[in-house]
Amino acid sequence: MPEIQKVPSGIRGLDELTGGGLPAGRPTLVCGGPGCGKTLLAMTFLVKGARDYREPGVFVSFDERIVDLAANVSSLGFDLVELQEQKLIAMDHVVLDRQAFQETGEYDLEGLFVRLGHAINRVEAKRVVLDSIDSLFAGIPNAAVVRSELVRLFNWLKERGLSTIVTAERGETGLTRHGVEEYVSDCVIVLDHRVIEQLSTRRLRVVKYRGSAHGTNEYPFLIGRRGITVFPVTSLGLAQIASAERVSTGMADLDKMLEGKGFYKGSSVLLGGGAGTGKTSIAAHFVEAACRRGERCVFFSFEESPSQPTRNMRSLGIDLQPWIESGLLRCHSTRPSLHGLEPHLASMLEEIDDYRPHVTVVDPLSALLASGTQHQTQGMLLRLIDHLKTNGVTALFTTLQTEDDLTHLSISSIMDTWIRVLNEDVDDDVVRQLHVVKSRGMAHSTKRRVMEITEHGVRLKDEAPKSLRSQ
What we know:
33% helix, 17 helices, 9-stranded mixed β-sheet
């Protein structure tokens, strides 16, 4: 049986988990508590529809003034004034006189239908947003009237084939306060904004979608510079193309351990080890080699300011400053505790989408645990890695890893290459070692190599002595 027709929402990730967007010509209910992003989701649906899909729309607000709405979404690049001048959208702020309703005791939506119909005809609208339905019926004590008019409103919209989003506040015992909207809507989306241990997370769930299969999980979503983005991990699939091309690690000795060719292009590399084992130094070699090839690189640091690794790497003969000045290398430093995980992910993905790097380094991955639980961090990293792989970005992640925690963050299984570096106490000295635990698709060396950090960079020597290998 063919699925119903759909219209793209223009919201990244939402169209993916709904299999193409929202139901065409039918109403969709978006409900949730205050501040969860209902109006922004609805506005994105309307603006993207008019701007990207040539489907003009009408936005009717029962709460906010149009000038305030325009100011609120201008930071997302939504120019509502220009869109109105181009007759791609029509905006209307309906002020309801609740006192008149109470005095006369009469209430119906005929006036709204006339007003809405005029706006629809003016721009030949295909999409409509009503924000929010609670304000429209606030002050009406007769529940039967509210139910009757709600049903009449939804039928009016469906009869005209309008793809509609109706927003509503979440009720105390149900999805909505009136308990009717969810039954007469063809699609129901619930938004949630929760704070756990002082860290906030927004989540989206498609509760109902008549005539269509859809993702049923709860998905984190972000509100960033580009508006709303949903990251449905389970619907991303595993369709990334595996490149046969290889890129140098920047260390000739390490390249030799990887068939003399280095990492696969577009692969993910986990570099784990204790404090002071040289993880950032190895990452700096990788970045410098990419820049020398003329490739764009992004270095995300969660423990040091941009100038610190640049200064420190000079002592190893690695000068990253010329690459920063040439624009081939961008460094972003942020304290992990500054945001929750989702804002961190949003800013990283925006930078990756804007700059389109060939190589990305995250140093260290384990610092993000300060922004969420282990489970939340794993989910966030999975979405980041999927995004990098989909875009063919070769990524190196350093992480603080101890002997007792060999599969730190439980993400080693999703990495293509896993390298461990460790320090061993020998008499009065410390011997650094490097070990390639795994590297998919190649016959890599499994030998432990002694590693030295010199003024000429990181060097690998012969195999580690047997006394060390047995430890």
